[in-house]
Design goal:
With 338 residues, the protein is an alpha+beta fold. The chain folds into two domains: 159 residues, Aminopeptidase (3-Layer(aba) Sandwich); 171 residues, Gcn5-related N-acetyltransferase (GNAT) (Aminopeptidase, 3-Layer(aba) Sandwich), CATH 3.40.630.30. Strands 1, 2, 3, 4, 5, 6, 7 and 15 form an eight-stranded mixed sheet that branches. Strands 9-10-11-12-13-8-14 form a seven-stranded mixed sheet, sandwiched between helices. Helix 2 packs across helix 8 and helix 6 crosses helix 9. The chain starts with a strand and ends with a helix.
Length: 338
């Protein structure tokens, strides 16, 4: 017998994740990411799926009310001990009943499972491929950290090793900090980059830093040149994985390769924390030569590692209003070259 109950105990939640997902974190299903969502006034529900009173799955469901429409987002979820179609169908039936009562037009989900497995489970006619780019690191670059620093350096692209040394010889200094006030040094760089690259800056960066630092799960890395912050990156350390969450550099100092040295310091800190891997987050898929992430992908892959690819997000359609959102997202996706 399958049942669903809300989970309010952090230990129960994290114990479930740590039994199966340590070393590759489903970041947006972590307890602390849910706390970030609460801080930015987003409605979430943490649900447990039980079979004969045994916890077999969890999902943090975010209820989004955006200008383009209302939907339920299961970001990096749901999580199951074993993915079975009957479990998915049961969860969706529960959420569908909830969503329709409150005018939500679809459910978006993106579990970190292989595409082949996803094709088996998400085969109903109501499922459609989400018309958004792979923003949740469905195609990502992973650097295993079970080798020495010397081996990591050896496996890097030659140009990356050179630029790390050049950054050092140029007098760049890297600061690691958990001081909440220091985020004010990073945000102007980040907002300036968003304006230049024509993307919407993520909201809640300060809140993310605050929540994860409280649990010693985040550090802000700042690169100084001549006593000025010219680059920065917010790194989270969750469930055995370091995650490259947000970064930016001052374009006026693009001749100073500070971000290469900064990333090397992140790698060393991740090893010190005994992380199993460093997730550089999203890279461009191989089949799109004009993808906007081509440049940043070249940067990330140069540190060595391997590509991981997961099922693209699926939308479970509940209302005709979904097709208005579908059209808007598809136009935006094509216009931006994703």
């Amino acid at each position: 017998m399958l049942t669903i109950k809300e989970i309010s105990n952090k230990k129960v939640w994290q114990d479930f994740i740590e039994k199966k997902y340590v070393g590759f974190s489903p970041f947006f299903q972590s307890w602390n990411w849910g706390e970030v969502q609460k801080k930015v006034n987003t409605t979430i529900e943490r649900l447990g799926i039980y079979e004969n009173e045994k916890l077999i799955g969890i999902v943090s469901a975010t209820f989004i009310s955006a200008k383009r429409g209302k939907y339920v987002h299961l970001r990096h979820g749901p999580l199951f001990i074993e993915y079975k179609k009957e479990y998915i169908d049961f969860l969706l039936s529960y959420l569908e009943e909830r969503a329709k009562k409150t005018g939500f037009s679809f459910i978006r989900l993106s579990p970190l499972i292989p595409s082949e497995k996803g094709s088996e489970i998400f085969s109903k006619k109501k499922f459609r491929d989400a018309q958004i780019h792979r923003m949740d690191a469905e195609v990502c670059w992973i650097l295993p950290l079970d080798i020495s620093e010397e081996e990591i350096l050896k496996n890097m692209r030659k140009s990356h090793r050179y630029l790390i040394k050049k950054s050092l010889s140029s007098g760049v200094r890297i600061e690691r900090t958990q001081n909440l006030n220091k985020i004010k040094l990073f945000l102007p760089l980040y907002k300036k980059l968003a304006h230049k690259k024509h993307f919407v800056a993520h909201g809640g960066v300060s809140e993310e830093f605050e929540v994860f630092v409280k649990n010693n799960q985040a550090e802000l890395f700042l690169a100084y040149f001549e006593n000025k912050v010219i680059s920065g990156a917010l790194i989270d350390f969750v469930d055995g994985m370091a995650i490259y969450r947000h970064s930016a550099s001052d374009d006026l100092y693009r001749h100073i390769p500070a971000m290469y040295l900064l990333q090397w310091e992140v790698i060393k800190e991740a090893k010190r924390r005994k992380m199993k891997a460093y997730n550089f987050w999203g890279i461009a898929p191989d089949d799109n030569p004009r993808h906007p992430w081509k440049g940043v992908s070249l940067f990330k892959t140069g540190f060595g590692g391997e590509k991981r690819e997961f099922m693209h997000g699926k939308d479970y359609v509940l209302s005709w209003k979904y097709w208005l959102i579908y059209a808007l997202e598809r136009i935006t996706k094509l216009r931006k070259g994703y």
